[in-house]
Design a protein that fits this description.
The complex is a heterodimer. Chain A has no helices and 30 strands. By secondary structure, chain A is an all-beta fold. In chain A, the strands form 8 sheets. Chain A has a 4-stranded antiparallel sheet, with no helix packed on it. In chain A, strand 20 and strand 21 form a beta hairpin. Chain B is an alpha+beta fold. Chain B has a 5-stranded mixed sheet with strand order 2-1-5-3-4. In chain B, strand 3 and strand 4 form a beta hairpin. The chains are: A mainly beta, B alpha+beta. At the A-B interface, strand 6 of A face helix 1 of B.
Chain lengths: 371, 98
């Protein structure tokens, strides 16, 4: 019988939540790597038992782990992330040049075809690739080196490359997003890159429509529509119909268009989910009501999904990598909060239940649909 | 044999107890201890010293014979008590409270 495995990264370890396809009764396994900040863990699409995990620590730096048995056991992998060539500088918060310094891996994106191939999005922003199951890493230096890199500035959370999207219909195409530089695309497997931020407008930079400098929080897409992208920007929910060449706003009737997560229904490419947050100064839901918003029209028209979610006195946040969907029917939707709750909806958002209330602050949520 | 004590998280990564023994030939220095440690336990590479700079991570300190030797030259001999194995070389993480 099919089921799901939810991979949860928290500030004090990783947790693996499993259920059958009903998604009603859950087993919670963890913490794995207790005490470590787990920025992200994700499984290979072609080998679900192959998991990769990113641990980060102010004390001990970056550690990468790999599992070949679905998280029952782990082995320590390579953690040497050296920038290609002379790293150079990006801009610091005050606009002065600052040397590129590796700090941590924010996001791991396993290849769609090869379980030993995995991309890493890191801080200070760069994309790395391993072709040997995370033993060794090399930078795809064309991203930092395409020309705008020296002008990138960090957001408050750091100059992080947090989103990597691969295209099942076009092996050479990779999307990446950086806070606070913007979105970028490669069409040649990461050799060369270009900014794709036309149509974005950000009042917090001197030129609101500049080529770079936009604080993109998350991008999502559906496999069947590889040129359609949905973006939660610092402010504004955006859409592109041409693989990022241009964007237009689809915030519509959302109570706030600030937020971090965005995801797409597994079977309905025009059904999109976001979780509005009050503002960039107040990182909690508007009115203290935790609401997922769903658009079935690809944006602009949004409905609040509230059943099972706290509708008073709720002041958690949902971080950029903390929402995921499964591919069961009906589609399951998952998100984790800074308050340690992990919620699931087994009916595409109509009703929600908490799988668990009391985990540490949730950094990331991924889900695997198992045969 | 040189005795080395690791912080909890590094013990877990290396799969060892609180104290380990290292065989070092030649002068016993901080660098010799860390080189031997990383050679015997490659999973510790990058967790005590930065890969690129080989600098000690800022939240870690090195203690020997009741002294903080973090800022001693990497190639300076460690105290005799550590070099003879009478006392351990301690790698200590900054304490964190809430």
């Amino acid at each position: 019988m099919s089921g799901v495995r939810v991979l949860v990264g928290t500030v004090k370890g990783a947790f693996i939540l499993t259920s059958d396809a009903k998604r009603e009764n859950w087993e919670i396994d963890g913490p794995h790597f207790g005490g470590w900040e787990i920025f992200h863990l994700k499984g290979s699409p072609v080998d679900p038992n192959r998991l990769y995990a990113s641990q980060s620590s102010d004390w001990f730096g970056q550690v990468i782990h790999r599992s070949n048995d679905g998280g029952k056991s782990w082995e320590t992998m390579g953690n040497e992330f050296l920038y290609e060539g002379t790293p150079g500088t990006h801009q610091w918060y005050d606009g002065t040049p600052h040397p590129w310094e590796f700090k941590r891996v924010w996001h791991l994106e396993p290849s769609l075809n090869d379980p030993d191939m995995v991309y890493a999005g890191v801080e200070d922003a760069a994309i790395f690739l391993s072709k040997d199951g995370a033993q060794t890493w090399h930078e795809l230096g064309g991203l930092r080196g395409h020309g705008t890199g020296p002008d990138w500035q960090p957001g408050a959370g750091g100059l992080c490359l947090h989103t990597i999207l691969l295209d099942p219909k076009n092996e050479g195409r990779i999307f990446a997003a950086i806070s606070a530089a913007g979105a970028f695309r490669s069409d040649d497997m990461g050799k060369s890159w270009k900014p794709i931020n036309q149509g974005l407008s950000s009042e917090y930079i001197p030129d609101p429509t500049a080529e770079i400098g936009h604080c993109v929080h998350r991008i999502a897409k559906h496999a069947s529509q590889p040129d359609v992208l949905f973006m939660q920007k610092h402010w504004d929910v955006m859409r592109s119909d041409n693989a990022g060449d241009s964007w237009y706003e689809i915030s519509g009737n959302l109570p706030s268009d600030f937020g971090f997560v965005v995801d797409v229904h597994a079977h309905e490419p025009e059904t999109v989910f976001v979780i509005p947050i009050k503002s960039d100064s107040e990182h909690y839901p508007p009115e203290g009501k935790l609401r997922v918003y769903r658009s079935r029209t690809g944006g602009n028209e949004w409905e609040a999904l509230t059943k099972g979610l706290p509708q008073s006195d709720c002041y958690v946040n949902v971080l950029r990598d903390a929402m995921a969907v499964d591919s069961l029917d009906p589609c399951g939707v998952y998100f984790g909060t800074t308050g340690g709750q992990v919620y699931v909806s087994a009916d595409a958002g109509d009703q929600w239940t908490a799988i668990t209330h009391d985990l540490p602050r949730v950094m990331s949520v991924e889900v695997q649909t198992l045969p | 044999m040189i005795r080395v004590k690791l912080p909890h998280h590094l013990q877990n990564i290396a799969g060892v107890g609180s104290e380990m023994l290292l065989d070092i030939e030649g002068p016993v220095t901080q660098q010799a201890i860390l080189d031997a440690l990383e050679s015997q336990y490659p999973v510790l590479r990058g967790t005590i010293r930065d890969h690129a700079t080989q600098q000690r991570r800022p939240y870690l300190r090195f203690f020997a014979s009741g002294e903080d030797v973090s800022h001693e030259a990497p190639d300076a001999p460690v105290p005799d008590a550590v070099a003879t194995g009478a006392e351990p070389f301690r790698i200590v993480g900054a304490i964190a409270g809430g």
